[in-house]
Every structure is written in C-alpha cells, then in structure tokens.
Description:
The complex is a heterotrimer of chains A (265), B (282) and C (289). Chain A is mainly α. Helices cover 68% and strands 3% of the residues of chain A. A two-stranded antiparallel sheet of chain A has the order 1-2. The longest helix of chain A is centred in the middle third of the chain and has 31 residues, at 153-183. In chain A, 27% of the residues are buried. In chain B, strand 7 (164-168), helix 6 (176-193) and strand 8 (196-201) form a beta-alpha-beta unit. Chain B is globular, with a radius of gyration of 20 Å. Chain C is of the alpha/beta class and 289 residues long. Chain C has one domain: P-loop containing nucleotide triphosphate hydrolases (Rossmann fold). Helices cover 37% and strands 24% of the residues of chain C. Chain C has 10 helices and 10 strands. In chain C, the strands form 2 sheets. Chain C has a 6-stranded mixed beta sheet with strand order 6-7-8-3-9-10, with helices on both faces. In chain C, strands 2-1-4-5 form a 4-stranded antiparallel beta sheet, covered by helices on one side. In chain C, a hairpin with a 2-residue loop joins strand 9 and strand 10. Classes of the chains: A mainly alpha (265), B alpha/beta (282), C alpha/beta (289). Chains in contact: A-B, A-C, B-C.
Amino acid sequence: MIRDITIGQYYPADSVLHRLDPRVKLTGTLVYIVSLFLVKNLWGYLIAALALAAVIRASKVPFGYIVKGLKAVVILLLFTVCFNLFLTSGTPVFEWKFIRITKEGLYLAFSMAVRLTLLILGSSLMTFTTTPNELTDGMESLLSPLKKLHVPVHEVAMMMSIALRFIPILLEETDKIMKAQQARGADFESGGIIKRAKAMIPILIPLFISAFRRAGDLAMAMEARCYRGGAGRTKMKPLHYHGRDAGAWITMAMFVAVIVVSRRF
Amino acid sequence: MSIIIDQLNYTYSPGTAYEKQALKDISLVIEDGEFIGLIGHTGSGKSTLIQHLNGLVKATGGSVYYNGADIYDADYNLKELRTKVGLVFQYPEHQLFETTVLKDVQFGPKNLSLTPLEVDLRAYGALKQVGIPDDLIDASPFELSGGQKRRVAIAGVLAMEPEVLILDEPTAGLDPKGRDEILDQIAKIHDERHITVILVSHSMEDVAKYVGRIIVMDHGRAVFDGAPKKVFSHYKELEGIGLAAPQVTYAVNALRERGILVKTDATTVQEAKAAVLAVWKG
Amino acid sequence: MPMIQSSDLTFEYIRRDEEGNVESITKALDGVSMEIKKGDFVAILGHNGSGKSTLAKHINAILLPTEGTLYVDGMDTKEEERLWDIRQTAGMVFQNPDNQIIATVVEEDVGFGPENLGVPTKEIWKRVEESLRAVGMYEYRTHSPNKLSGGQKQRVAIAGIMAMKPQCIVLDEPTAMLDPNGRKEVIRTVRELNSREKVTVLLITHYMEEVIHADKVIVMDDGKIVMQGTPREIFSQVEKLKSFRMDVPQITELAYELKKAGMPLPDGILSVEEFVEAVGRCCDVGGRR
C-alpha cells in the first residue's frame, strides 16, 4: 500500500539521537556515507553495520519501522545487485548458457548491496530522528557560507521542509484519487506498459491540480503570517551545541579512525 | 436483489503501531430501491464501510453479498461490481481531469466496453439529470463554479448507470441553497431511476428530510438502524456519541416537557409545524 | 478608531485572452462600505461567489482595492510600507486546515508567525505556550499536525495567528470542511477569544447556527452588502435571506412557518428555548392545552 512508504518521515521519540544538534546529524550522516566508500573488506562492513545497529538502538526508533523504508527502494537495490553480478568480468565461478557469474562480480554485488542498504538505513535514520524544521535549520546553518555566493540557502531549506510536510498529504490524496477513478471503472493493473502509463493520466492530472491549489493556498497563508524570506527572521529553536554534541563528534572521529584502520586487515 | 453485509470487520494496518479497528461486526441488509442515510462523525467508520460495498477495500473478516453472490469469491468480477455500485467520493470535483465536461463524464462508460453511441447517450443523459445546461457540455470542467463541478463529478458516476448510488458527503462546502439543490437532485435521481441511494452525511436536518432509513455509526459499529422517526427518538443517546437530532425534534420534545402535549416524533419543519398547530388549534 | 473601515470598496477580476486583451471584467466587490468596531464579533454571510472571501483578503492586504479604500486600525491597506503591520494587526485563518499549517510539529507551526516578525526566542516560546493554551491545544504541542482532527488543526491555525498578537482575526469559512463536532470546537474557541482576549472577530461562514451569537451580521450578494444588523434583525427576514441563497436556522424557520399559519409569535426566534417560551405563551393565553 502506498501509505507504507515511511522514508523521510519523522518518528517522534525521546532519545539522545533525537536531541542531537541537526548539524551534527547531517555531518554524521555524510561522514558515514563517505566512510562506507572507504571500506575495503568484510571487516569494514561488519564494523559499519554494527555501528549503525548501535545508533539505531540508541534512537529508539523500532527496527522494523526503519526496514519498512527499504521497501520503496528494493527495486533499485535488486537492479544494482543484478547489474554487478552479471556484468562484472573476472574469474568465473558459475556458467550456464549466456549467464556468467564471476568471483569479482559476486563480491562487487555483495558490497554494493551492503553499501546501499547501510546508506539508505543510515540516511533514513537521520530523517526519522530529526524534524524537517530542524533539518532545514541545520542545512541552512551548514550551508550559510554559500550565501556569500548568492545561493538562496534559506529558500532552498524552506522548500525542502515544505516538501517533506506535504509528502504524507499527497500520498493520501493519491490513494483517494486512485480509488475514485477505480470506482469509475479505471483499471491500473492490467495491460502493457503503454496502457498502464495511459491509465496514470486520470490520477496524475488531478494530483497536479491539487498540488498547485495547495501551493497557492499555502503561499497565501504564509504571506498572511508575515513570511518575507529569511531576512529579519528569528528562530524559535535556535541551534546551540551541547555537551552531547561534542560526544557525538568524538564518536564520529573514532568511527572514521576504526574504518580507516580496518582497511589494513 | 439486495446487499447483505454479514459480520463485517476491518482493521487498518494490522500488526503495526497504527493498527486500528475501523469496522466491528457490522451486519446489515440493504434492499433494492431504499434511500438510506448513513450518519456518524469523522472516524466512525462510515467512509470505510461504503468502500467495502463496491470492493475497493477488502474486509479483514466477514462477507458482503451483492445480489446473492459473495463478492470475495475468487472468481467474482470486482470490476463489474464497481460499475453496479457507483461511489461518489467526498469533494468528487477534485477527480475531474479531462479537457471538456462531456469527455470527463464519458470516462466511466468508456471503461465499460460500450458502443461510442451508447457512451455518448449515457454521458449526455447523466449530465441532463444533474442539471448541467447544454452550453457547458464542451466547456473545461475547471472553468465551472464549485457547485457545477460537483454535479459534473456526480454525473461521471451516474453515467455508468449503477444500480446502487453511494454519495459521501455530497453537500460538503456548498452554500445553503447549493446544499438543497444537490439533495433535491439526488432525491429526483432516486425516484426516476428507481435505484438504491446511500447518502453519507453528518447533517441530521438534511437526512431527515429525504431518506426512509437511517443507519448511525459510532466507533466502527452500527448503533442505530431504522426509520428517521425511530432513530431520532433516541436523541439523547445520539448526543452521547457526539451527534444530534434535528433542531425541531428538540423543540417538540421541549414543548412536551413544558406541558404542551404535542406529538414528539417530528423530524422536519413541516411535521413539527403540523404537530404544534394541532395542539394550538385544539 | 474603528477596527476596520471601508468606503466604496470595489475589486475587479480582469480576465485576459492569450493576446492580453481584456476578455471580461467581473466585479467581485462593488462599492462596499462598512465599519467594524473594536472588540465586536461580526459574521459575514453570503453564498459561494458573493464576494465575501474577496472582502476578507482585502483586510489582510492579500488583495488591494481597484477603487475605494480600506483601513485596518487606521492604516490604509494601499500603503506598502505598512503591509506587515496590517498583516500583524489583522490575522487570517483560511478554509483548508491542511493548506495553512507549515511545520510538522504543532508548536513549531505556532512559532512560525512570531519568527517572521523577528520576535526574540524567549518571547516566541512564551507566546506559543499562551496561544496554544488559549485554544486548548497545549497538550498537543509536540504532535504532528497530520494526526490531528480537522477541528484541532483549525485550532492550531488559530493559535498560529494569536501568537502574532493581532487585534483582529478574520476567519474565511474556517468550518466549511469540518464535521459538526469540529465546527462546534472552532466556534467555541473563537467566541472565547473574542470575549476573553477581546480580539475583534470577523467570521465568514454559510452555517447559520454559527452566527446567532454574533454582535452583527452582514449579508453579501453579488459583491454588495445587502443586509446588515443583529442576528435577530437578519433572521426575522426569512424570505429575503432565502432570495440571497441563504437559509435560517431550522427553529427560526419553524417559528416563521407557524406565524404564517396564524400563531402570534415574535419575529426572529433564534433558539429552542426562545421558541418553547413563545409557543408556551400562545398556548397558555389560548387556554387550549
């Protein structure tokens, strides 16, 4: 069901991770992703996986809930695995007709699958533990040097947070429109790819119209509440580093050190 | 020829943190040609119930029989059921998508593998029945007024010539006159096409004026079921679940309590008027 | 100084064809003159397309008059440098609760207005708490708006406006998308804010039951003000109201019908209690029980 897509949605809980400064979490996620590409062997993956498991545990977000987010990208995952599995040249370990699996391919497919899974879990953990507003505040603060280059940092950040707020609303709307068109005899399940693509028109047009209508309404509501861009705005929840954030920086540094060391095994 | 709902249960997202039982042991028989009001506040399960009647949502327990056939049978044609049981969702105008009014109304019948002539006839007939004038038929549906858009959307379902027409809050967001016009039109459709109509609403005043039977839902259960007079005689219990009888029902009951011996079963202005005049004139 | 004052307010929607030539001109407002006193609860009735929403948007300076003027607390809405003062003075709540909540946590949404006004952080927290308490949503401050009912969402939207400390709130059909419980919740909240916090309220609606407690009712049709007066004065004129696609509360209609049939009842009965008393008097006098 379309509503099961949980990627990018905030999960309210009271944990150390929820309380961390969003800048720390953003940087941490970035560091984690980069470290995944530094990993050279099984030990490194094991360490990265264990570290993530520990952080997930600390976040108090149910593991099953996080894994559900993977469902949305399972196709991408399968595609990558197959791509690496069948198209890597090297020492063959299995051959049947035109199918050829090599030792290198096996390793590559495995490492890509692990990398992608950890990457998605890691970054979705960030969105689970950080409210969109914190996320945008964090991004805005981290990217603020770019303002000097006339990059509209505040606007981009605001845009992102609004998009995240409207994802569940638009998903629900899609579900409703689909049902309404089904009630008029629309069929989304049978036929070839072209027929199916055509069947999407009665969903997409109302969905776009609704999105535009909502955008217009929201813009008006924001103006009515005196929104006029980033200049002169104060913050209800200004970002301050705390002791726990220092702890997080140190943990991060240790993690990177361990990953780099693991390359030597 | 009827709809039989037997011990229907439905649970949202079972096994997750958001698990919620939306329908609990609902058993109802809906006869051909009835005009039913389905009442309950948001979250009472009424919208979930109607989505079971055309198979859009599958029950987690119990059965639905349409004209004697179990719609959950493996070989039952659900697509055909959806054409027999027409469902008009809340704010149906939000599902309009075609470039002209006529084309949008044709969408339903076109999915039924009819001849082009038959598609045209049905679409045109439906538009006439909801009172869309000829000069608007080739207009873009997005240029119409709110009330007109809603009629076009209702015509879109009507054009499939359903045997049962279900409307979820068809008057939401309309002004008083617009509300009356739509309800009058629905009553007319019920009379002229001799079809079953189920009207989902939270306006007691509207429902009392038109329907022959009221089903009240609360927390996933059907708590009252009967003629309006019978259901509204429970006006005190209705209040307990956050609903209320029409204002005139309160008025005649309050008169009685004051010692003026009016009949207390009035549910419409006309009935209350007759009841009060009967006492006053002696 | 009146809270809101308009004189000969006219607003035209101009439709142009592809070449930019004027295709048609619709007068959404046509010479509207009115005055709203500070602290009043004023209701505006009118069918869809009668111009009532257009009028509301003028008060918030979202739309500017084509002709005539509108003053909000003495400020001309056409003066661009006062724009933000005007919007802070007259806050606005819209119809669709989903499309006016910006944040994903209730308290952050209520803080959005004060943030825009540049209010210091400590003061924002104070205002957020006060406004959430005023609408009875304080316990929900850390919830996601998506999980609230329609009535609760509208109360959050009202709190978001209250946090800007306005003198006046304009509500543009705030109950149109709610169920009866949600409607009652919102109306109760608005009435409380009016009586306790002395906020001027301008409520636009087409539910008749919601206006019977107003200090003043304005009826609009075709961009003009066609009726003005107390709820009792307005609802005494059943036929006239119906001619503007409006209605009267059911009890008012019943009393009106009985009066037409010869019962000596007063005009403009607004509640069941009034009705019972009036009918009781007739029956007692007649001695026919």
